[in-house]
Amino acid sequence: QVQLQESGPGLVKPSETLSLTCTVSGGPISDYYWGWIRQSPGEGLELIGYIYYTGTTNYNPSLKSRVIMLVDMSKNQFSVRLTYVTAADTAEYYCARRKAYSTAFDIWGQGTMVTVSS
Amino acid sequence: SYVLTQPPSVSVAPGQTATITCGGNNIGTKTIHWYQQRPGQAPVLVVYDDSDRPSGIPERFSASNSGNRATLTISRVEAGDEADYYCHVWDRSGDQVFGGGTKLTVL
């Protein structure tokens, strides 16, 4: 079955760029939308945005000026970059697949914790 | 931006029915999904497109959506249902938002 795995640094300095990659295994990256969702400690879920396998993106308006998402079909991966991070960006970051013909996220990665600190 | 309101907590005894609400302006006109998140784990989709269940989700989980409120109902609650539950809305303008989450406690 399809599985997602996030990877990237667990510690990022303030004002630097957070970069995470999600590797999709067990199925193709094509024909689906792929999303990034984060969860600050003790808080709820926040959608960062999502990307179609063709590269079309839709970002959360509150993060739009700092977010870039990319797809690499050759590696079956997609990624997110968040620039100029602050302590407020400290969170568990999840990648997820949007279910076909729906807007629900039906498959999630296990998540990766990113701390912003000097 | 669109706001979803969930009660912070709901408590229910084993075997009883838990009702978790998600309020929003004309939410009945939007498509809603529900996720279960156990402590230390990633969210799991339990209901999508207002009332459909993914394969593997028990029939005890059901949902409805109309007016200004959507509802997730868990029948015959078990200890393993104890978790945080989040509603998630998408509307045709492209806005996607999660509710603040409801902690379900099984007494």
Helix fraction of chain A? under 10%
- Major β-sheet of chain A, in short? 7 strands, mixed
Taken in chain order, the helices and strands of chain A follow as EEEEEEEEEEE
Number of helices of chain B: 0
Look at the helices and sheets of chain B and give the structural class.
Answer: mainly beta
Q: Given the C-alpha coordinates, what overall shape of chain A results?
A: globular
Pair of chains with the largest interface and how many residues each contributes: A-B, 20 and 21 residues
Query: What is the CA-CA span between the terminal residues of chain B?
Result: 36 Å
Q: Which range best describes the helical content of chain B: under 10%, 10-25%, 25-40%, 40-55%, 55-70% or over 70%? A: under 10%
Between the first and last Cα atoms of chain A, what is the distance in angstroms? 39 Å
What overall form of chain B do the CA principal axes indicate? globular
The gyration radius over C-alpha positions of chain A equals 13 Å
Outline the low-pLDDT stretches of chain A: none
> What is the oligomer described by this structure?
heterodimer
Computed CA radius of gyration of chain B, to the nearest angstrom: 13 Å
Order of helices and strands of chain B: EEEEEEEEE
What percentage of amino acids of chain A are in beta strands? Answer: over 45%
Question: Which spans of chain B of ≥5 residues are poorly predicted at pLDDT below 50?
Answer: none
Q: Largest beta sheet of chain B, briefly?
A: 6 strands, mixed
Number of strands of chain A: 11
Report mean pLDDT of chain B, rounded to a whole number: 95
